[in-house]
TrEMBL record:
Name recorded for this polypeptide: Sugar ABC transporter permease
UniProt keyword list: Cell membrane, Membrane, Transmembrane, Transmembrane helix, Transport
Cell compartment(s), UniProt: Cell membrane
Pfam family for this entry, one: BPD_transp_1
Membrane topology label: Multi-pass membrane protein
Chief location category: membrane
Listed PANTHER family: BLR7065 PROTEIN, INTEGRAL MEMBRANE SUGAR TRANSPORT PROTEIN
Domain ABC transmembrane type-1: 92-304
InterPro entries, per database record: MetI-like, MetI-like_sf
Organism: Microvirga terrestris
Amino acid sequence: MATASETTLVTTHNESGTKWWTRFLDPSERTLAVLLLMPAALLLTLIIVYPVCRLIWTSFQNLSLTSGVPATFAGLENYTLVLEDPVFWETTWNTVLITLITVPGALLVGLALALMANLPFNVKWPVRLSLLIPWALPLSFAGLIFAWFFHSEYGVVNDVLRRLGIEGVIWFNSANWAFAAICLTIIWKTSSFMALIILAGLQTIPRSLYEAADVDGAGRLRQFFEITLPLLKPAIVVALIFRTITALQTFDIPFTMTRGGPGTSTSTLAMYIHQNTVDFLDLGYGSALAVVMFALSMGVTAVYLRMIRAKG
């Protein structure tokens, strides 16, 4: 015969089990949130956290597939080589310069396109479609198209210049002209992305604000600077964050247009990483370069987020 203490223990155990099962079937908001977020968290761990951790670990190793030697721990040796590598500094500067030129350029062009697309057209879908086409084109395809546009012999740009009585330019034999061609291509390709985000922001601005401004006698320019631009700041910041991160990872367009030439004058950090990991099969050094680019991207994102928090 069970004692009173044993009966109490069994009852308590059954109640706790029933309570757990009831909590699972009828969870609280916090438990439900955890259950719903758990699959996404596991997926992010598999596709983001593990590869990043693996990348960082590989960057501390001497791992070259052409040496035939097993990987060995190298400590900070790869990072020391990165800091002493002149090609790393050149490609990093090229990447930063592309970012500083193309991000503001794409923002200005995208803002103008978004304002045009937001005009009260009777039929709006052709205008919206024209914004989608550059964005939908693959980056490498856009690079090949503009490589043909800027070709010195049969390119469209030189043909137009000759018809205007201006001597054609050998675009890809000069570092400056090749860099300018790449920046123009990137601005054309990415401005539509900026325009789509800004257009979404324009759609959220109430028309009543412009009607009130018309009653007060405010002109279009004043309405733009006092109503449109301030209310577009959240959309612009989001566009800048996404565009800056992708600009720091620029690869496809310079690769298809110039292969980094002449020399390494148009080579980017992403192209240098590709060269070391895919061409030279030096995974340790290439991983160290990739970690530097990852840290640079996260640093820029942190600056943007801090600016948003400060303004908020």
